[in-house]
Amino acid sequence: MNLLTHPFPLRTLLLSSCMLAVSFSFAGSLDASAANKKDDYKTQRPEASKRCFRSEAVESTINQVAAGISDAKLAWMFTNCFPNTLDTTVDYELLDGKPDTYVITGDIDAMWLRDSSAQVWPYLSLANKDEALKNLFRGLISRQMKCILLDPYANAFYKDFSKETEWKEDKPTPGSGVHERKYEIDSYCYPIRLAYNYWKETGDASIFDKAWDQGARRIVKTFRTEQRKDGTTPYSFVRVYANHTVTAPFEGKGRPSKPVGLIASAFRPSDDGCMYPFLIPSNIFAAESLGQLAEIYQTVLHDDSMAAECKNFSEEVSAAINKYAVIDHLDFGKIYAYEVDGYGNAVFMDDPNIPSLIAMKYLNAPKYYDEEVYQNTRRYLLSTANPYYFVGKAGEGQGGPHAGLNTIWNMGIVLRAMTSTDTKEIKWCIEELLHTDADTGFMHETFNKDDASQFSRSWFAWANTLFGEMIVQVHHQHPELLKEIKN
Is the pTM of this model over 0.85? Predict the structure, then answer.
C-alpha cells in the first residue's frame, strides 16, 4: 500500500495513538510542573509505550548527559526537551519496502523541510550506534526529495500527498499534498545539509539514488531561476486573510531587485515575507549547500559536469555576498546585512529562526563567511543598536517581526550560547533559558521580555531539541558549567 496517495483518514488512524499520547502529555504539563518542588520534577515525556519513536542511543545519551547536570530543573528540562522530536513528532514506517519518515513540526500537523531536518539533526552523531536511527534518517532524506519534486516552491507538506491544503485562499492555491507554498531558500538547503552530513557520518551513499539526484537537480534549477537575472520569476504568493508579514508585496512577486548573482527568497525562515529579496544568511547557507552538492556529484555520483556547475554557482553566490552584503556600520565596522536588494539598500537586523546571522557560525563551515565580519555582526546583533534586541524584566535577547515587538526568541538565546567561546556568556544563556520556561519544562518560540508566562507555541519540537543539542554540546566542551549552574 502506498500511503503517499492513500486517503487521509488512514494516515490519521496511523498517527492517532502517538499523537493522542502527546496531547495528553502537553495538556497536563502546566498543572504538573506548577505543583513541583525543587528536586521533585516529574517527567513531561509521554510514557514509553506511547512515544512515536525510540532510539537506544538517544536514551543512553540522555542518561549520560543528565548525570553530569547538578541542577534538578536543568536536568529535567534537558530530559524533556532533547528527545521531544522522537517522542512526539516522528511517523516512521516502511513504504514499498523502504524507510519512510514524516516529521511534523509540533503543534501543526505538517512537515516543514527546514524544521524536519533541524529537528533530527542533534541525533545525527548517534546514527552509527543505532540502526533504527539510521533508518529514520534514510526515510526522511528520501521523503524530503519527494516533497521537493512535488512542488519546488513549497516549504511545508502533508504525509498524504492527496490531502488538500488548509490554505485554500492562498493565491495561487497550493496543490494536493502541500500545506504551504512559501518559497524559502533554506527549504532546499536543509535537506542537502542533512543528506551530505548523514553520508559523511555513516559512509552510507545509498541515499543518493535516482530520486535524490532528480530532487537535487530541481533545487539547482530553482536557485538559478531565483537569481532572477532576466528580472522575472514564475513564483508569486498572496495570502488573503493574514497580516502583512506573510504576504509578498506587488501582487505576490516581492520588491524589485537588481541581478547581482545572489538568490532571491520570498520568505524568511520565520515564514515572514522578506523586505528585500536577497536574504543574506540564506544565501550563505545556499553557497555552502551548493559546495556540498559539488562534492557529492564529484565523489559519489561521478558527474563532473554537474559538480562543476554546483561549484561555480557556489563561488558566484559567495562573491556576490562579499560584494553586496558586507557593509560598513557607523559603530561596529564591517557587518553582514540581513537583506539587500542589489541596488544598495539593506536591512540591518536578524530574525533568530535559523538560518540567521548569529547562527552563521553554528550552521556554516568557516570558508563560507568572514570570521571578523561575523564577530562584528554578532556584537551589533547582541546590542540595543539592533532594533529587535529587547531587554525586560524577564530577560533579554533577540526578537524579530514574526511574533511582535518585545518578544524574545528562545532559539536566539540557544544560538548565542552555541556560537560563544566565553563560558560566562554560555552560562548566562543557559540560566536565562532555565528561568524563562514558565515552569513548563520546555522551550517555546518566544516569550515576552517582561513576563515569561506569556509565550508562543507550547509544543515546538525544533526549539526543544535544539535546546537539548546545546546542553549536549556544553557537556562535551564545558562539562564544568553543568555542575555550576543553579536554579
Answer: yes
